[in-house]
Amino acid sequence: MDAREFEFEKLDAFGVSLQIARVIDRLSGSLPTGRGYMRDQLRRAANSVVLNVAEGAGEFSRREKGRFYRMAKRSATEVAAQVMLIESLALLEPEVCEEALDLLHREVSMLSGLSQWAAEVEASRGVREQMPEDE
Predict the structure, then answer these.
(1) pTM score, two decimals?
(2) Contacts for 7-11 with beta carbons within 8 Å, 24 or more apart?
(3) 84 versus 2: which is more confidently predicted?
(4) For 68-126, how does the pLDDT look when each residue is reduced to its tens digit (9 = 90+)?
(5) Can you say whether residue 34 is alpha, beta or left, with left for phi > 0 and alpha for psi between -120 and 50 degrees?
(6) How many Cβ atoms sit within 10 Å of the Cβ of residue 10?
(7) In whole angstroms, what is the distance from residue 40 CA to residue 119 CA?
(8) What is the mean pLDDT of residues 50-70?
(9) Is 54's pLDDT higher than 60?
């Protein structure tokens, strides 16, 4: 491991989340005047995907890893819904939204797998118990 490499950098989900953040930043910057609220929400949700993937990778407990990966997945689906809303309102051309939606679909799939992995590891250890409400 490189001396300056973090555990989360090893995850494909982290690399894709960075791509999503870049695409969303560019896409949201193209929104028409008067849609600043959408721009801000999109950027916050995209940043949340990146940060929750990193935070999950940094956790020791599989249960906590899974919780952060699920939060990242929820943020990714929020971003996808926002992009679809933008497309539906014809605020941007459909092809502008497609790159983001393709990346988001890939990210959600990876995060589902990471969440499932964390749950299965906990279950195999016999420590899976009632999950508290996620934040």
Answers:
(1) 0.87
(2) 7/57, 7/58, 8/53, 8/54, 8/56, 8/57, 8/58, 10/57, 11/53, 11/57, 11/114
(3) 84
(4) 999 999 999 999 999 999 999 999 999 989 999 999 999 999 999 999 999 887 677 76
(5) left
(6) 12
(7) 33
(8) 96
(9) yes
* Residue 21 contacts residue 50 (beta carbons within 8 Å): yes
Superfamily covering domain 8-124: 23S rRNA-intervening sequence (1.20.1440.60)
Helical packing angle, 36-58 and 12-29, nearest 10°: 170
3-state SS of the chain is CCCCCCHHHHCHHHHHHHHHHHHHHHHHHCCCCCCHHHHHHHHHHHHHHHHHHHHHHHCCCHHHHHHHHHHHHHHHHHHHHHHHHHHHCCCCCHHHHHHHHHHHHHHHHHHHHHHHHHHHHHHHCCCCCCCCCCC
Token pair for 63: 């249960």
pLDDT value of residue 135: 46
